[in-house]
# Entry
Amino acid sequence: MLDEQTDSLIDQKQNCIWLHAANREMLGATTHLAQQILQKHQNVTVLLTYTWGNKHQLTLHPRLSSKMVTNDSGSTARSLVQRFNPKSLIWLGGDVMPKIISDLHKEGCKMTLVADAAEALKTRRFTLFTPAIAKAVRLFSTYYALDAKAATLLARLGVVASKIKINGPLQQGYVLEETHEEDPPIVKGLVSGRPAWLAVNVMDRELKAVLQAQRVVMRQAHRMLLLIALHPSDEADQILALAQGFDLNAALWQTGLEIGQNLDVIMIPAQIDPTSCFRLAPLCFLGQSLFETGQGQSPYQAAALGAAIIVGPFVGAHMADYDRLDEAGGLRRVNDPNELATAVLQMSGPEQAAQTSLAAWTVVSQGAEVTDALTALALDQLGS
# Structure
């Protein structure tokens, strides 16, 4: 079955690269690879298909089209080839679909298989070493194995050992934009000032919890500022009134704002670039996470920009991403305003914040060499 809903409807048939995430574990790495390819080349489009996962995990981009593909059929392949005309395919993970692979091979598409360790070449429809699977695997021209076990499986399926490149894991993270612009006034005005913590993507119900936490924090850390990144739909006057209800002095950021000792909360206008926001404070609470109604958000942008992350228990489709960071000591989980305040106080020391942010940054940087190699390969295949 081909899910016809897309994140971005692109019909360009020039310079299209097809990326397929064949299992749930590969979706994050595939999304990251797509981001990197799109950043590296402005005239490339990406078709990202996936068998498992949630569309909330995908990053929107005007040159990215995403579809769920669950049916291995020649008609599925022909439909996508007719619309997108991909010149290159990178198939990441297991669940090789022989009919789709065969049709792409007939169309002359250059195909790369990335065999992962956990699910390497297993499918729901076939046992591992059927002739159909083996034949499909041998139609690829380039092979990456993420560990020795995956390389062994490829060899048993008839792939010549000299064609298999054994690498470590793929990168899952956030692709930083290259910029040479000067720091905006808000960065210059806040970074060198009072100690601060940041709250981003906070939903209405969480605002009270965040302000309550700030009130608790200030009992022990009197100079600590709370910075709240606003949504376009947020009403600054309502938040000002809400802050006053907690006996907190708040102001909306504007150039020339004097940050006096009596100021407790600064609201950051929605038009401020999110990348700049993460540079304003070493600690960051990622909203949409304290209550069950929250959808969560990817932690990778904050981690890539060096923030020490604090997050609630409800992160939706991003749970696996947070678990990766948590296992490495790259974040702090909280359940209520008091725990949030405790986390801010305990992590506000430079050493603790640096330790947490470094652990998260290390996780999102792992596998960069393999991802870079796949990016270069895909772009090179477009021109060959």
Notes: Residues 1-11, 123-127 have pLDDT under 50 and may be disordered. Residues 204-220 form the longest helix (17 residues). Residues 213 and 294 are 18 Å apart (CA to CA). The first strand starts at residue 16 and ends at 21.
